[in-house]
Amino acid sequence: MEFVYLKRAPKVAVSQPRLLLLLHGYGSNEADLFSFADDLPDDFFIISLRAPRSIQYGGFGWYDINFMDAEKFNNTEQAAESLQSIRSFIRQAIIRYDLNHDEVWLGGFSQGAILSYALVLQDPENIRRVICMSGYPAHDILGSLEDRDYGDLRFFISHGVEDGVIPVEWARQIKPILDEKGIHYTYKEYRSGHGVVPQNFQDMKAWMQENN
Q: How large is the average pLDDT for residues 158-187?
């Protein structure tokens, strides 16, 4: 499997455990979201991926962002490549670690959340629960969404109202999309910036337990 990643096996004996795949934000690395791993439910097999592209000043990204050109803000070709690679990784990880094929969970922050939206809304495949923190639905990456059977798919979405990186107005654009698709979601905002404050993390954990 081509990605560099960190993993945590379940802390309890589980036959074919569920996968929780974590996708970090632009300029970060696999250790960022993996710092949550010890505080997440014991029965998950947790994998935190490192994005494939090295960026200036250290860190990694899933695709390049051109901050100087509003006409081509996101490198959509690179985003599509990352989406394809993540899908392939999920299939390989399920086989390699003998995981539950029908119960994949996805968690993303910022750029990782943007890809999480695209990954699931384009084709949910075997993903059942999605956590999107401080992200937004990038329409140039989402593309035109075909009618899909999303089954019991559920989202936990969170954002800071003082986020200076991704405005909260962008994050709110996901709600009419999910409403139109009939997808159940929990949406929460916090008096915070571009990050995960303690209350955000506690609410996320509670949602994971409630939507087990």
A: 96
